[in-house]
Amino acid sequence: MTKRSAAAKRPRRERGSLNPEDIIEGAFELAEQVSIDGLSMPLLGKHLDVGVTSIYWYFRKKDDLLNAMTDRALSQYVFATPFIEARDWRESLTNHARTMRSAFLGNPILCDLILIRSALSPHAAQLGARQTEHAVASLVEAGLSVDEAFDTYSAISLHIRGSVVLQRLYDKNKEQDAQAGAYYDDIVVEPETTPLLAEAMAKGRKSGAPDDHNFEYGLKCILDHASSLIGTQQPAATSTPRRASKAAAAG
Predict the structure, then answer these.
(1) Which stretches does UniProt call biased (Polar residues) (predicted)?
(2) What is d(CA 120, CA 129) in angstroms, rounded to the nearest whole number?
(3) In 73, 167, 190, 207, which residue has its Cα 20 to 30 A from 13's Cα atom?
């Protein structure tokens, strides 16, 4: 998914040398220029300097190609995302969440493939499930029940994705119409009628905006709730997971 210089001209391809990896790499290069929505098989054929039928030999339709791109993007994304560790669950989960958000905000192609595009290949879905399994297992080890761990990571994931998708949709609207705004830009605040809103927003706050301040506040609230469930007045490594404690009590 690395960008190729726009000025660099791809050498003419020898007949029969095309392979799926070349097609996927070329598709990422082209998507950087025209976006996922603008990507098409004919344009990709021109970009690769091959006949479009050569691409259809490997990918029968655009969705098949997008699935392959998603598999690669998700594999790289999962590999680059920090794991959550039970011994320092709050710090590592915070780092995990911030890294996920930064990765999506910094790469619109990644965002469009994984978050906005609804279809995932079975391989991509399995990768996502394994990442979630590891996160839930670490939170259970830290002291949450399975249900609490699942709900906590689900809330974190939703918080990240919602923030990123809202920002991406805002950016897309701006690309199409420079005058386009967001709902949080249109809120009318008058000190005479809404003094509390005026006081808060005078400090740079925006109601409902997917900005850093709102993201960090929401993240802190989720983590604070998880902390209260665990009751971590002691280091997580010395605490006994409540699931195990309940099982022992029942025995």
Answers:
(1) 232-242
(2) 12
(3) 73
Which runs of consecutive H residues, i.e. helices, occur in 202-240? 212-230
pTM score above 0.90: no
Say if CB 239 and CB 248 are below 8 A apart.
Answer: no
**What is d(CA 197, CA 188) in angstroms, rounded to the nearest whole number?**
10
Report residue 59 as tokens: 């990918």
Tokens for 52, please give them: 């479009």
Which tokens go with 40? 């098409």
* CATH value of 19-60 in 3.40.50.300, 1.20.120.1460, 3.30.710.10, 1.10.10.60: 1.10.10.60
Give yes or no for a contact between 153 and 96, defined as CB atoms under 8 angstroms apart. no
CA atoms of 58 and 210, how far apart (whole Å): 39
pLDDT by residue (tens digit) across 199-235? 998 888 888 899 999 999 999 999 999 999 998 544 4
Rounded Cα–Cα distance for residues 23 and 166 (Å): 30
CATH architecture classification, 70-177+215-235: Orthogonal Bundle (1.10)
Collapsed DSSP state (helix, strand, coil) of residue 159: helix
- CA neighbor of 115 nearest in space, from 175, 150, 159, 178: 159
